[in-house]
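can u pls check wat happens w/ pyridoxal-5'-phosphate
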Amino acid sequence: MSEGQGRHFLQIPGPSPVPDRILRAIGQQVIDHRGPEFKKLGQNVLEGIRTIFKTSGPVVIYPSSGTGAWEAAIVNTLSPGDKVLMIETGHFATLWQQMAKRWGLDVDFVPGDWRHGADPKLIEARLAEDRQHSIKAVMVVHNETSTGVTSRIADIRKAMQKANHPALLMVDTISSLGSVDYRHDEWQVDVTVSCSQKGLMLPPGLGFTAISEKALAASKTNRMPRSYWDWSEMLKPNANGFFPYTPATNLLFGLREAIAMLLDEGLDQVFQRHERLAAATRAAVRAWGLEILCQSPAEYSPVLTAVMMPAGHDADRFRQIVLKKYNMSLGAGLTKLAGTVFRIGHLGECNELVLCGTLAGVEMGLSAAGVPHRAGGVAAAMADLGANDAEPSSGLKAAAG
Ligand code: PLP
């Protein structure tokens, strides 16, 4: 077994592997982005993507990575010097906070231990203290990809209501959209930020912002300079399915297919599949005797599991061994967690057998790297998958019959 033989296992928490159906959709001749065929494509994806965000409002699609969509959320709604509340859930919350500071926002960045999500009670208390309503936005990462911790957005919205505070709620769903239940309208989120290369199973290159009426109203009066990211420039041509500049046409072909795939399976089924695979992964980690980074079961991520390395063992060396021997990429520990955790992605086009292969690679890699652990993680995951399988085995029934 060596690198280059067999299929590569891309088990990082995004970009996730692109299904053949989407690859085929992308692999078409480019079309005139001002012509009638594009109009149909544009209308189809601009309408379809709303069902994924669960919103009836506009979703702006940029040719960008997720970081671009972060910037769009900030520059379209806030003004220099505005106070915002952010929570240090991990690496990505920290980066968004750095961007907010660069845009001249006054960030109240509540420290966190990178093992828990954003605490609704803490947010409620912070907002209740702010009697002048000087906090203009609460900005939270839904699924913190660096830690495998999912914050409870519905509870955060309730906390904001309890504090009776008018701040905008902005949520980064970059690694949760299309994998974890998310409801832009029902949870009254004002700006939801996302991108293409995780739960939507597309290559990197599309950024999204879903926009509430309140956020749209804020964009009419806020004072942040912008041009490329300006929602109003986008929304005008979007009304007819077009874009103000050359769109990422072939990624939009892929997006049309991705939306169809998610709706064919059913969003609830997609979310349940992610939950099932995540639970089986945790069963494996526990059986190995290793520690899961996330400390709060209510916040376990359905998308990825971050695993702590036993003291004295380097997670990056382990990942290199897994890549070389078994042709599998696992996620690295980021910044504060470099070398001390590795991350197993179980999102997008992932099923029971892909997961078992992934976990087998981890288990063999732990042995190859001399990392102390107990055997039997894959068996524990298989038992968990069986235990959670609601359907009676048709094979057994047929054999019995
Ligand atoms: N936010 C989260 C939660 C992420 O996982 C990522 C990337 O992995 C980003 C933001 C940045 O997105 P991008 O790398 O597409 O710019």
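The two ends are 42 Å apart (CA to CA).
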